[in-house]
């Protein structure tokens, strides 16, 4: 009996011939939702992010948090250490500018290599950037500010290797910023002060250069050229700014003996090197080579600048161009700098390659008595 009931119940549940009772039907209906919840269909894929999206979200979160923490740190320094905060801000901006300059120079060099472009075929701003950073294309010896900057950084890095030596580095950087820090990390006041110091150093060579010009006057064979040379030296000695035609009248003197580039004496080349902010402590043949290449680069820059036009330069570019050519432009009005730079270009663009010794001496002749240049 009991066995028959069990068989009937099993047939009622699983068999198709027997209809289940209302109790069994209700139990099955109640059991289905539970089974659905237990095993349910897989969730929609919209609820899950792909691995790439997860990484992007994580990076965005880290960047946002970093910016928040950095902002709090800046405000903390500004409130509690205002003087240090100024130095810290200048240092961080200097790092950004230094890196940007290096990347831009790299792009220009890559463009030159891919398209077989020479240094003098670049635009003025590209040439000037390379001169400042990589010292200009095929003239690696000339005025490499970037290489000097890298040398300073390497020196600081080497002396900071021993344990706790970095504190000594910070002290040295604070005490000797002009010698150990690169221009990107100078404060605005330091930039003006240090440029004045450098100009005072090159100005010390001016009397020596003018004295040599006076001594070679008897060696000039042409009487007319001797008279022009005497007049030019007299005007400069009396504080008069020479006219363009006064300088161009002496082109022949500076293309051959006694003032041609290949006829300059060692002492004169040393003085001219100091006037160009180049080291004078080299053998004569190296001094001559450096002066030639440096003057050639300036001559090529002048041609590119004449093509661009002085009016397209920013005020900072004008002052930088004047300072490179011998004028202390830090304390001269912008319009006066533009006028002086125009005079320089008239002289430079009138000279041939054999007459570049006159352009080299023009660093002194045209700048020494210009209004506002004496300090």
TrEMBL record:
Top-level taxon of the source organism: Eukaryota
Chief subcellular location: mitochondrion
GO biological process: intracellular monoatomic cation homeostasis
Residue spans crossing the bilayer: 153-176
Matching Pfam families: LETM1_RBD (PF07766)
Molecular function, one GO term: ribosome binding
Subcellular location(s) per record: Mitochondrion inner membrane
One Gene Ontology cellular component: mitochondrial inner membrane
Mitochondrion in keyword set: yes
UniProt keyword terms in alphabetical order: Membrane, Mitochondrion, Mitochondrion inner membrane, Transmembrane, Transmembrane helix
Membrane association type: Single-pass membrane protein
Protein name: LETM1 domain containing 1
Origin species: Lynx canadensis (Canada lynx)
Species lineage: Eukaryota, Metazoa, Chordata, Craniata, Vertebrata
């Amino acid at each position: 009996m009991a066995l028959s009931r069990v068989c009937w119940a099993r047939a009622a549940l699983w068999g198709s011939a027997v209809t289940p009772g209302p109790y069994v039907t209700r139990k099955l209906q109640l059991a289905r939702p539970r089974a659905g919840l237990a095993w349910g269909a897989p969730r929609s894929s919209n609820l899950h992010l792909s691995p790439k999206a997860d990484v992007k979200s994580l990076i965005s979160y880290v960047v946002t948090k970093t910016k928040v923490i950095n902002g709090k740190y800046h405000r903390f320094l500004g409130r509690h250490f205002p003087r240090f905060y100024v130095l810290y801000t200048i240092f961080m901006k200097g790092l950004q500018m230094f890196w940007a300059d290096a990347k831009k120079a790299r792009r220009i060099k890559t463009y030159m290599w891919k398209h077989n472009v020479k240094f003098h075929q670049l635009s003025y701003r590209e040439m000037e950037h390379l001169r400042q950073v990589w010292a200009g294309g095929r003239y690696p010896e000339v005025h490499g500010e970037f290489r000097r900057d890298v040398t300073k950084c390497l020196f600081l890095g080497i002396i900071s290797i021993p344990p706790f030596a970095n504190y000594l580095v910070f002290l040295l950087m604070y005490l000797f910023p002009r010698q150990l820090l690169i221009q990107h990390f100078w404060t605005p006041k330091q930039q003006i002060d240090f440029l004045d110091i450098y100009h005072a150093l090159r100005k010390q060579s001016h009397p020596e250069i003018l004295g040599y010009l006076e001594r070679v006057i008897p060696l000039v064979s042409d009487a007319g050229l001797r008279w022009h040379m005497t007049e030019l030296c007299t005007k400069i000695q009396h504080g008069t700014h020479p006219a363009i035609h006064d300088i161009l009248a002496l082109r022949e003197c500076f293309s051959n003996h006694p003032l041609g580039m290949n006829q300059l004496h060692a002492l004169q080349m040393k003085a001219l090197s100091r006037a160009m902010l180049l080291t004078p402590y080299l053998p004569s043949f190296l001094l001559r080579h450096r002066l030639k290449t440096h003057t050639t680069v300036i001559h090529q820059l002048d041609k590119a600048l004449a093509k661009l036009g002085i009016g397209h330069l920013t005020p900072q570019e004008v002052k930088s161009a004047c300072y490179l050519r011998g004028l202390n432009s830090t304390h001269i009005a912008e319009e006066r700098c533009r006028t002086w730079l125009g005079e320089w270009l008239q002289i430079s663009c009138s000279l041939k390659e054999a007459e570049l010794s006159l352009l080299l001496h023009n660093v002194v002749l045209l700048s020494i008595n210009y209004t506002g240049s004496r300090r």
